[in-house]
Amino acid sequence: MPLFLKGFSASIACDNVDLEIFGKVCINDGKIATGWIASEVHKEFTVHWISPCPMSVDIYLDGRCAQTMSQRKDGHGLCKGVYVSGAAIRPFRFADLVLTDDDDVAGPVSDELGSIEIRVTRVAGFAESTELYRGRDFVDTGPIHETSKKAGVHAITLGETAAIRPVVVYTPYGREEVPFARLLFRYRPLELLRAKGIAPPGNPRASRLTNVPAGPSYLQRQREGRVRVKSEPITDDDADEGTLEAQLALVQNRLAKKRAKKGKTVVKQELSPIRVPSGSNGEVIDLT
After folding, report:
1. What pTM value is reported for the model?
2. Residues 45, 18: Cα–Cα separation, whole Å
3. pLDDT value of residue 224
């Protein structure tokens, strides 16, 4: 079941299957609906919602606005990634959170690391624009220090660029200043959710994911010698025993899957067209 708030609902899907949401609650005096989902490295995901009226939909990944979408009428909407131009998209993807012991390389740690947030704002309507869509930029989460207590196991990156049909640009007007609703998904590996008692043990619906090849990331830049990183946060002395055991099990599971994949060929599928993205200047696009 998706998250619900004020007649608006949202969910995160992998392989066209909604991920199960654990620990659903409303916080901040009922202004934010939140819950936990299980993530898996290298897995692409899509954001879905159902809106009761025209809305501007902002999608925040790890605390940064990645894409804005238009919902020009009530009904279902979705976003599969970041539109990097008017005819190309890069899909959302879960990735390893990169750690480093180099104080000069480590970046600041956001409180929103490990989150997917959907902020919906009411608008009076949308006007079609004749301007070309210029695309958006999205910067991966940089390496953080291995001693950070905020360090999780996963972050969000973007997959490889795929061509789409040209988009139509729309500009919202009469947009309210404050979001109408906020729906917040916190993501963690399934093993950690179970270790913390958030997900029940052995729940087969918690994550229906399979491994696929990874795209460019900080791990690739590590191999090129630009940063010194440690790929797994399994040495945090402040972590509790259950968390460390879960992280160890996660590493062992990935290693076993990687060995099993050797010699197999993976065929990359092209992304299907997506409708209603937005530019960094508030413009919104529609593909219908």
Report:
1. 0.70
2. 9
3. 43
